[in-house]
Write a structure and sequence with these properties.
about 300 residues; globular; transport; MetI-like; MetI-like_sf; cell membrane
Length: about 300
Amino acid sequence: MYPFGKGIKRYLPLLLLMIPLSLYVVFYFGPSMMTVIYSFTDITNVPGSKLNFVGLDNYYSVFNSGNSGERWDSIIRTVYFMIIVTIVQNGVGLLMAVVINQKLKGDYFYRAVFFLPVVLGVSVVALVWGLMFDPLSGPVNQLYDSLFGYKDMFFGSFTHAFGYIIFTQIWMYMGYSMLIFLAGLQSVPKDLYEAGYIDGTTKWQSFKNITFPLIAPSFTINIILSIIGAMSTFDIILATTDGRFNTRTMAYDVYKETFRGSLQMGLPSALSVVQFLMILVFVVFAVKQMRKREVEY
């Protein structure tokens, strides 16, 4: 009845929980709430400056300032980036997970190779693909030239740079999606496959009617993580194009307005809130649809 003892010892779990809770409040919840508050003020990055409440002026500036056209382009580009990354990354991750789950020889090696880009970090990934996509001496351009007689500027192209950023993002994180799908695949009871085999089901029918429904939670987790990750990505853009060549997204705009813009902190705070609300809407919609699919199955 008293697993932690009597008296003051009964409150030991609560005391231990206070440590991570305090860290969460200080380093996450607190700054998040201050960002919301600052979005309604004219706060600047100048020490000792006065802070005045300006209502929705910062939110009006987000969508109606002199560069509002670029802002809308960034929003549309962010949604496009999220949709493509979410679909392709999870599709490729699922395919790799299904192949590796077939008990291939050296499957642990393949897992490590596919997951390696995740742990390399953005700087290393940007450097690797910067060298691969070098327009003068990169191997990809040499391959293009030898096969198609065509050369590209890659991260320096106004029409193709964003596509190569999407490719780099997918290449970097598809191993993460693969591991989550692989964990879901390995939790499917083998007896179900054996029963299906006895009934004469094909591999596609087994995947469609047994595997796919039972790994629905893995789909939900991967979709949520992909949406949040894609709509929050700015580092790979910063490391490859620095927002040039039509590659700016909302996350990059938040970074630029905060660290490279004016001393005003209200506008980037409002941008952060708008970005959070967009992510929230897409995540809630995705969770609702995925949960509905789980119930149906």
